[in-house]
Write a structure and sequence with these properties.
315 residues, alpha/beta, Rossmann fold, L-2-Hydroxyisocaproate Dehydrogenase, Chain A, domain 2, 44% helix, binds adenosine-5-diphosphoribose
């Protein structure tokens, strides 16, 4: 039987993700959105590209969940995106309700799926999906680190004037102002970045990567990034569906690793058929450890805010 990937939310990130996965040809794709006709229209358009691309992917668009039954992976992109002047955290109240609702509907039909959360604020939305699904933490993973790292890698490649393929790096921590780019793990074809760029320039690149999402929101004005986010999701889908066991920076629920417990934070993980098969604990410098813990604290703050918002909604 063919594998099935469901994408909830057929907006910019969702539709682009569906396109990237459909073009790979290894899984059928179901696209779900609340807007009548929109996921159906996008799915039909994507299907009509199949003969040109030579893929036999079945692509279904729907406003209900029946077609999502027995998905291997469900990507959650539903929610609102940032506009200029908004932080990811400004999306909290709206997106927590949406993510909770869609997760509940998805897991009823796909109890064995791996959930990839994309909606922002990412780390907090992972908590919502984990709680609403009742899944083991290894089957609820967030997309942020690959995107943040890709932004950082692309700026380094530009500064050093080499192929992006030769840049290895990690950006850990939360998907936001507290992300932690690791200069100590940044190499260009194995050469430490410090040997190729002055510290001032590395710091400027780190700063640009940290604000990479806001830079795009500022240019687009009506929404946020989607090409790079969908490329990052597709890399995660590849690793899970093809059981590649890639080591990729993703948001994972930690249970003591890096001295952090019961919170989602971006760390290197091994992604395979079972979802997160291992959280990789790499050696960090003291300041990097501190920055990662600070990042975890910021996520904990958002989780507390969600508890407060829920209480207020009830009273
Ligand atoms: N069920 C299904 N789809 C929903 C629901 C719901 N309950 N609520 C909203 N949506 C859909 C919207 O109708 C819209 O088509 O989610 C889609 C979101 O698409 P966009 O507005 O284009 O936003 P996008 O850029 O795709 O970002 C989606 O990903 O990167 C994050 O911060 C970003 O949280 C945002 C999410």
């Amino acid at each position: 039987m063919r594998k099935k990937v469901t994408v909830i939310g057929a907006g910019n990130v969702g539709a682009t993700t569906a396109q990237r996965i459909a073009e790979r040809g290894y899984a059928d794709v179901v696209l779900v959105d609340i807007i009548k006709g929109m996921p159906q229209g996008k799915a039909l358009d994507l299907s009509e590209a199949s003969p040109v691309l030579g893929v036999d992917t079945q692509i279904t668009g729907s406003n209900s969940y029946a077609a999502t039954r027995n998905s291997d992976i469900v990507v959650i992109t539903s929610g609102i995106a940032r506009r200029p002047g908004m932080s990811r955290d400004d999306l909290l109240a709206t997106n927590m309700a949406i993510v909770e609702d869609v997760t509940t509907k998805v897991v009823q039909r796909s109890p064995k799926a791996v959930l990839i959360v994309v909606s922002n604020p990412l780390d907090a939305m992972c908590h919502v999906a984990l709680t609403a699904s009742g899944f083991p933490a290894k089957r609820v993973v967030g997309m942020a680190g690959i995107l943040d790292t890709a932004r950082y890698r692309s700026f380094i490649a530009e500064a050093v004037d080499v192929s992006v393929e030769d840049i290895n790096a990690y950006v850990l921590g939360g998907h936001g102002d507290t992300m932690v780019p690791l200069a100590s793990y940044t190499t260009v074809a194995g050469i430490p970045i410090g040997e190729l760029l002055p510290k001032k320039e590395i710091d400027a690149i780190i700063d640009r990567a940290r604000n990479g999402g806001a830079e795009i929101v500022g240019l687009l004005k009506t929404g946020s990034a989607f090409y790079a986010p969908s490329a990052a999701v597709a890399e995660m889908v590849d690793s899970i569906l093809l059981d590649k066991k890639r080591i990729l920076p993703c948001a994972a629920y930690l249970s003591g690793q890096y001295g952090i417990k019961n919170v989602y934070v971006g760390v290197p993980v091994k992604l395979g058929a079972g979802g997160i098969e291992q959280v990789m604990e790499i050696k960090l410098a003291a300041d990097e450890k501190r920055a990662l813990r600070r990042s975890a604290k910021a996520v904990e703050g958002l989780v507390k805010d969600m508890v407060r918002l829920r209480r207020e909604a009830k009273s």
